[in-house]
Structures are given as structure tokens and as C-alpha cells.
Amino acid sequence: MTIRVLYFAALRDALGRSEESLALPPGVSTIGELQTFLADRGDQWKAIEGGKSVRAARNQRMVGSSEPVSPGDEIAFFPPVTGG
Amino acid sequence: MSVSVQEGDFDAGAEITALSQGCPEVGAVATFIGLVRTARDGSGVRAMTLEHYPGMTEKALEDIVVDARGRWHLEGVRVIHRVGRLEPGDQIVFVGVAGAHRGEAFAACEFIMDYLKTRAPFWKREETPQGVRWVEARESDDDAAVRWDDIEIRR
């Protein structure tokens, strides 16, 4: 399954990239599993598993870690928002 | 259009006028304007840059307006949020709510700001004499948003 992943703000700075297309192996089917998969890339990627300090959106709606991921999804990870 | 995300400034007076123009049933307009300020914690903020998630930002703001309209009977709602580089004194955000009475106008205006603070994908990066830093989210903003959940349950 191929998805698009976006990173914003301080998390993007920490990871050194703003977006990528990603082919997921079998067994990675939720937001939480995707975070674990990405964190395995190396030390700087541990930031993606930041608990409450990392929020996720699926197809531009905020979701929790148990949210499923489907082919073609746009998944975004970012720090808690600070607008207003 | 009730929601705008834009780089340019806004004319708060014109927005307030528009909220009640041609609507004789409007008896109250409540507004909030957020500004860039210096000295968040004693260090001088020279400027800030607001980043957002194009596409999601507009949807998130529209969802918040729909939620507000489900909670109160409102005659009009306007939300404007600026992005890009802003300096102290610059306007960041405008929320205007028109209703028949002040109760729903005040409440809905505060509700929209509380939800915007925790649900709309904006991030502030400050320029200070010590360098550039991302603004950290505050738990008090989460608390402010959560109290509306309780109010909904009580209704």
C-alpha cells in the first residue's frame, strides 16, 4: 500500500523532510503502527513517536493512533497546534 | 464565505459591519481579535511566522463553525486567520459572531477561539534576539477547549 506522508513545523525540522511517498509493508495498517514503522528508521525518527507531543491527521482530519490507514491516504504528523 | 486563511491583513470594522448588514434579527455581535505581542516570557519577540497545513486548515475552521452553529442559534459567523510573517501589533485572527442576543454571541465567539487554539493546524515560530524557536502548545489551551465538552453533556 502506498500513502503520502506530510510533516509540519518543529517535527518537520527534526526529521529533515516535509513530505514523502511511502510504500508500507504488510502489518502497518494504523496510524500508531505507521509511527512505529517510521521510528525504526533511526535515531532522529524517534521524534515521530512523541506521544501527546505528536498529533496525526488522516486525509486532513485529526485522528487518533488506532485510526486505520488505507492506500492513497494523505497522512500528516505535526506538533500540537499553536494558532490563534 | 465564513472562513478565510490569508496572508493579508483584515479590516475588523468592515467585518463587524458585514455581520449584521441586512440582518434585522441580529441583536448582538461579539468579536475577538488576536494580535502579535512582544515579551511572551520576558524575551523580545521581533516577529513570528505562522505556518499552516493548506487544505486541512480551511476544513478544520469550517468544522468548528459548523459545531458552533449546532450548539447555538447564530445569525452569522466570520473567522479570518492570517499566515506568514507578522510583527508585534499585527492582527493574527478575527472571530465575529452575530446572534439575536449577547449570550449566544459571547459564548460562541469564545468557543470558536478555544477550539481553533487546539484543532486548527497552525504553528507559530518566533524570532527573538536568541534566535528562532517554535512556540510550544499550552496545556491551558487544551483545558479551555475541553470545558465545552462538559457544557455539551449538561445540555
Question: Would you kindly provide a written description of the structure presented here, covering whatever features stand out?
Answer:
- The complex is a heterodimer of chains A (84) and B (155).
- Chain A is globular and about 35 Å long.
- The longest helix of chain A has 9 residues, at 31-39.
- Chain A has 84 residues and is of the alpha+beta class.
- Chain A contains two helices and five strands.
- Chain A has helices spanning 9-15, 31-39; strands at residues 2-7, 19-23, 55-58, 61-63, 74-78.
- Chain B is of the alpha+beta class.
- Chain B contains four helices and eight strands, in the order E-H-E-E-H-E-E-E-H-E-E-H.
- Chain B has a four-stranded mixed beta sheet, with helices on both faces.
- In chain B, helix 2 (56-71) packs antiparallel against helix 3 (102-119) and helix 3 (102-119) packs across helix 4.
- Chain B is globular and about 50 Å long.
- The chains are: A alpha+beta (84), B alpha+beta (155).
- The interface between A and B is medium-sized, with 17 and 27 residues.
Spatially, the strands of the biggest sheet of chain A line up as: 2-1-5-3-4
Indicate the percent of residues in helices of chain B: 25-40%
Whole-number mean pLDDT of chain B: 93
Low-confidence stretches of chain A: none
SS elements, strand count of chain B: 8
Distance between the termini of chain B: 29 Å
Distance between the termini of chain A: 37 Å
List the helices and strands and how they pair.
The complex is a heterodimer of chains A (84) and B (155).
Chain A (H helix, E strand, L loop, with lengths): L1 E6 L1 H7 L3 E5 L7 H9 L15 E4 L2 E3 L10 E5 L6
Parallel strand pairs in A: 1-5
Antiparallel strand pairs in A: 1-2, 3-4, 3-5
Chain B lengths: L2 E4 L5 H9 L7 E8 L11 E6 L3 H16 L4 E7 L1 E3 L4 E9 L2 H18 L2 E7 L2 E4 L4 H16 L1
Main features:
heterodimer, A: 84 residues, alpha+beta, five-stranded mixed β-sheet, 2 helices, 5 strands, 19% helix, globular, B: 155 residues, four-stranded mixed β-sheet, four-stranded antiparallel β-sheet, 8 strands
